[in-house]
Amino acid sequence: MILTHAQIWAAIDALGDRYGLTASGLARKAGLDPTTFNRSKRETPSGRQRWPSTESIAKVLQATGASLDEFMALISANSGASRRHTRPLIGLAQAGEGGFFDEAGFATGGGWDEIDVLAETDENSYALEISGDSMSPLYRDGDIVIVSPSAPVRRGDRVVVKTTSGEIMAKELKRQTARAIELRSINPAFPDRVIPRDEVSWMARILWASQ
Questions:
Q1: Largest distance between two CA atoms of the chain
Q2: Which of 48, 63, 192, 193 is 20 to 30 A from residue 168's alpha carbon, by CA?
Q3: What is the CA radius of gyration of the chain?
Q4: pLDDT, tens digit, for every residue of 17-26?
Q5: Is the separation of the CB atoms in 210 and 146 below 8 Å?
């Protein structure tokens, strides 16, 4: 995909909107000059395009906790050439019931709705509708996240975990060992979790959110 000046800036604006920040607020959060992302800075007085630096984008991702996948999805959403992909969709609360996933966390069985997404997704991905506020303000009640059980999971990734008792949750992976996985709640009002490995049915990485 060839990135355009308009797509990059639109993705930065969309990222700010996702976190309730203006362009200047996003810049301040990233430790940049407040005027860095102002519309007046996107072109020179002569009309020549100014592009945000890779360093400034990296600082924004670090400050907001957004992943590169999420940022690229925002770019894709602002690309007229983006292709739509239909993926299975189910509510996070309903997903805790039996019959929707196999033992590895892949979508199976009936009862799924469908949703169109504007992003490149692997064939095993599916969509979950967030319920509750344990991931607020990053993901809010009603937001849609795209999840893949086949994507590699690393520390710091946002994940969906299902326990053997049927509980399903969206958290951030703090650490995983041979004995347990440690999960961090994005919302500080909710406790972190440590779940023994033998109580984890499956864990799948959140690739991006459609909000």
A1: 63
A2: 63
A3: 19
A4: 887 888 888 9
A5: yes
β-partners of residue 148 are: 205
Q: Is the pLDDT of residue 198 over 90?
A: yes
Are 181 and 129 in contact, with CB atoms under 8 Å apart?
Answer: no
Structure tokens at 68: 């590169």
Beta strands 126-129 and 85-91, pairing class: parallel
Of 211, 120, 89, 107, which Cα lies nearest the Cα of 162?
A: 107
Tens of pLDDT, residue by residue over 136-176, are 777 888 888 889 998 889 999 999 999 999 888 889 999 99
DSSP string, the chain: ----HHHHHHHHHHHHHHTT--HHHHHHHTTS-TTTT-GGGSB-TT--B----HHHHHHHHHHHT--HHHHHHHHHHT-TTPPPEEEEEEEHHHHTSTTSB-TTS-B-SS--EEEEESS---TT-EEEE--SSTTTTTS-TT-EEEEETTS---TT-EEEEEETTS-EEEEEEEEE-SSEEEEE-SSTTS--EEEEGGGEEEEEEEEEEE-
| Cross-strand bridge partners of residue 206 | 147
Q: Is the peptide bond before 188 cis (omega within 30 degrees of 0)?
A: no
> Tell me: the pLDDT tens digits for 66-92?
888 888 888 876 655 445 567 889 888
Q: How many of the other CB atoms lie within 10 Å of CB of 22?
A: 14
Tokens of 192: 């972190």
Tokens (6 digits) for 55: 């360093």
